[in-house]
Recover the amino acids of this structure.
């Protein structure tokens, strides 16, 4: 074979080898791109499905009347729920029903709401218990303490305040709730110095009731159930903050009790976190009043001496447990405090909150807005 022919063959082999390398690179690039795209689709799909399984709006308990006609298929029921804004995706509802092997839906008119999850709606539509007129309802405002909530329940329901308080402290009932809502109600509520085990665990909202005399368990449990729903929504952030649920609800309750309508809860939250980081006592008056078991317009110097772990003037860190039942705005502030250097805040008579960095600045504002007005 001539040298020129050998060179020609060698050149062709080199070209083929180069082309093969290019093809392999293209194939590899396409393969990696497909994996990335596929992973993105899978990840996005997972997040979408996870979101669709949650209630449309955990805060909205406004009733929505829906009618399920006789002979309705799961598909038509899913369509009705989606059309009424009660679920996010009718197809995912259908797959959920199939996956859970649910059946036996009964025709009727049902009162549902956006705070319900799939299973709650399914359970109700399987019972055939059609909606009735509301016999009474209980509204729990934000920031109410357990003893106040007992009075609100007694005012609307056919039970005395003492009966309600006894049920709220019934160990057997509390143990039942702990087993049913283990992510929210933990052994933290059983600790020795806790004033009320369920303080901070009764979510502020309006609760309708359709029977003349539902059991106290049936009145109280929806309040705990709603807190559980909210906690589960916030659980990743709670864990990210390296807190447990009890600490989270305790912090939220302090923010709730200190906040006014005009207050910036994120800044109040930042003050509490800054003081904890500095090893300073929180020195928040509502904890003193909670320890005293009183409601007063002004906390006196003698009050600050009350011997209680709830007294944040004498003890550093968080109190043993929540001092009230907080709402969602305080929940959010407890997990996302604003980034500030503030160590003090002061609420004026007009409901405004003044934030300061030093004790000197704080005392100056106190003299201007509080001491002066008390003279």
């Amino acid at each position: 074979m001539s040298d020129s022919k050998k060179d020609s063959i060698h050149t062709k082999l080199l070209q083929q080898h180069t082309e093969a390398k290019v093809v392999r690179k293209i194939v590899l690039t396409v393969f990696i791109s497909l994996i990335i795209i596929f992973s993105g689709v899978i990840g996005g799909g997972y997040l979408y499905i996870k979101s669709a399984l949650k209630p449309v709006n955990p805060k909205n308990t406004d009733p929505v009347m829906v009618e399920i006609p006789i002979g309705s298929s799961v598909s038509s029921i899913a369509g009705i729920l989606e059309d009424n804004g009660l679920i996010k995706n009718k197809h995912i509802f259908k797959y959920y029903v199939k996956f859970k092997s649910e059946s036996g839906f009964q025709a009727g008119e049902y009162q549902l709401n956006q705070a319900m999850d799939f299973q709650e709606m399914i359970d109700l539509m399987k019972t055939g218990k059609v909606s009735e007129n509301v016999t009474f309802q209980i509204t729990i405002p934000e920031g109410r303490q357990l003893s106040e909530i007992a009075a609100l329940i007694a005012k609307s329901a056919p039970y005395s305040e003492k009966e309600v308080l006894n049920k709220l402290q019934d160990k057997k009932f509390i143990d039942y709730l702990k087993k049913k809502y283990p992510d929210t109600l933990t052994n933290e509520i059983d600790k020795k110095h806790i004033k009320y085990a369920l303080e901070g665990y009764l979510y502020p909202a309006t609760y309708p009731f359709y029977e003349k005399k539902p059991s106290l368990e049936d009145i109280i449990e929806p309040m705990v159930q709603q807190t559980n729903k909210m906690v589960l929504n916030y659980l990743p952030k709670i864990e990210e903050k390296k807190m447990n649920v009890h600490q989270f609800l305790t912090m939220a309750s302090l923010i709730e009790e200190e906040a006014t309508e005009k207050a910036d809860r994120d800044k109040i939250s930042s003050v509490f976190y800054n003081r904890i980081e500095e090893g300073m006592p929180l020195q928040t008056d509502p904890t003193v009043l909670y320890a005293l078991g009183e409601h007063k317009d002004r906390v006196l110097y003698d009050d600050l001496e009350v011997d209680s772990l709830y007294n944040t003037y004498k003890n550093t860190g968080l109190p043993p447990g929540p001092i009230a039942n907080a709402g969602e705005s305080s929940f959010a502030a407890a997990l996302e405090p604003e980034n500030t250097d503030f160590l003090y805040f002061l609420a004026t008579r007009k409901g405004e909150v003044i934030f300061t960095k030093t004790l000197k600045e704080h005392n100056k504002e106190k003299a201007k807005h509080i001491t002066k007005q008390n003279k």
Remarks:
- The longest strand covers residues 64-68.
- The chain has a mean pLDDT of 85.
